[in-house]
Amino acid sequence: MTTISMRFDRGASMIRSLTRPAALVLALLAFAGVAPASAQYFGRNKVQYRTFDFRVLRTAHFDIYFYPAESLAAHDAGRMAERWYTRHSETFSHQFERKSVVLYADHADFEQTNVVSESPDQGEQGVTEGLRTRVVMPLQGSYKETDHVLGHELVHVFQYDIAENGDVNGLARMGTLPGWLIEGMAEYFSLGRNSPLTAMWMRDAVERDSFPTIDQLTNDPRFFPYRYGQALWAYVAGRWGDRAVVDVYRTSLRMGLANAITRVLGEPPDSLSADWAAANKALYTQQLVGRTKPQDAGQPVIKTTGKNADMNVSPVISPDGNYVAFFSSRSLFSIDLYLADAHTGRIIRKLASPSSDPHFDALNFIESSGAWSPDGKQFAFIVDENGNDDVAIVDVASGKIERKLGIPGVGSVTGISWSPNGKLMAMSGMAGGISDIYVLDLESGRVRQLTNDKYADEMPAFSPDGQTIAFTSDRGAKTNFQDLSYSPLQL
Q1: Which one of 97, 114, 305, 307 is most buried, by most CB atoms within 10 A?
Q2: In percent, how much of the chain has pLDDT > 70?
Q3: What does the alpha-carbon distance between residue 304 and residue 311 come to, in Å, rounded to a whole number?
């Protein structure tokens, strides 16, 4: 591996965004010459708060772009990329020329993405010329999740490269393929056949008797393409082998999905749908026997309004048990923080909203639900502001933001916990793409780092006496950073 220096600054870029599920972090692929109008739109309109002094780490098949703060994690990501190349090139029976992988230290930095094709020795088109596909993504804090996201995105690189270097209309035909085929394949080849998250989705669909057909997966947005797509490809690979998954994709580029399924698998999509559904029903119906259904475990307090994409997430009960703070999309225009009666579900007031507070770029609700003060008078939550993750504290009675606290040296913050004496706040913070546990002194504003290693340290919680902190981590016997293997998260 060799490293050279390069600076990425403000300017237009060839970027195409790819959506991500909520539990996962955003990543994007950029490729030159496909959709320049929309691509330059993204480049001009991203707000950039800082300039990143990128260096280039050259591995056997990739140019890994990183800046000094993320040097340690980036070098390990280079090893991950090469391992994925070996796996995927064998799976797809395909090799490609050098590609670029642009890494940001955290999601807050990634949101400022303005990739410029500029280098001191090659001129403005030096990065993209000859490198038709580029992966741009943030590090995840957890090596295991960085490995997964990178593996997922590199499946897309193989998909694009196969389409681009095959039939003359390959890229256009790829654009007609359904999301479950493209994204589900990327999930299957990066996560494998057994995924607890996907199993949860399939079990739920069976329990509700709403297991989809392939036609519904293709046309009905209610069925999430990542999870259902992964499950379908896992079923196909279980019957016909991994090669059949690739063959269906390659054949779909020539003759369309329905014909490809029939040609490669020997049965039409309707029959495949029926077989897939029957296999899942046989597996999960037996697992559901004797289990308590969600509606039998308690009464719903906060209900959906019946609107599309309506969600109520990340609830936190107040110390006295009378109130619940939660995030909701009920305003249609943004994700906002609400206060409700914990007994009746009555909405008392909106506590915070990026649409009403110009200082907030967004409220961070995906990986952190916020925290109540011990006396129940204040609520702390994480906001994106000017390219940083800050902790905002709102007075619950008035809905007024009383304080906003920056976390020096920490790029991304999740999982905050208020100490019982009200003086400290524990959190998981990312620096250089690696997560650790930090404690913030609310009186002085000083930050103390408690862990400092490559392990994923997340979701801290103070003990009732405030003397110890519990947190989740992959620091187990199976974690080995030399061979990039990871233990499951544990307390």
Answers
A1: 114
A2: 83
A3: 7
Tell which residue, 430, 415, 422, 393, has the closest CA to residue 461: 415
Tokens of 191: 């996560």
pLDDT band at 396 (very low <50, low <70, confident <90, very high): very high
416 vs 426: CA distance, rounded Å:
6
Who's near 265: CB < 8 A, 6+ residues apart? Answer: 236, 240, 244, 248, 272
Helical H segments across 105-178, by residue range: 107-110, 143-164, 170-174
The pLDDT score that the predictor gives to residue 364 is 72
Rg (CA), the chain: 24
Helix, strand, coil percentages for the chain (3-state, nearest 5): 35, 25, 40
pTM equals: 0.85
The residues with which 341 forms a beta bridge, in sequence order, are 323
Q: Which residue has the higher pLDDT, 81 or 35?
A: 81
Residue 104 pairs in a beta bridge with 138
Asked if residue 150 lies in contact with residue 79, where contact means CB atoms within 8 angstroms, the answer is no
DSSP bridge partners of 52: 8
d(CA 25, CA 107): 8
Instruction: With beta carbons less than 8 A apart as the criterion, state whether 458 and 435 touch.
Output: yes
Burial degree of 432 (CB within 10 A; 0-12, 13-18, 19+): buried
List all residues 6 or more positions away from 482 whose beta carbon is below 8 Å from its beta carbon.
none
Name the amino acid, one letter, at 60: A
pLDDT confidence bin for 136, thresholds 50/70/90: very high
Q: How far apart are CA 27 and CA 30, in angstroms?
A: 10
Indicate the DSSP class of residue 223: S
Max distance between CA atoms of the chain, in angstroms, equals 69
Across residues 138-148, what is the average pLDDT?
95
What token pair was written down for 23? Answer: 């539990």
What is the spatial distance between Cα 79 and Cα 207, in angstroms, rounded to a whole number? 41
CB atoms within 10 A of CB 422: 15
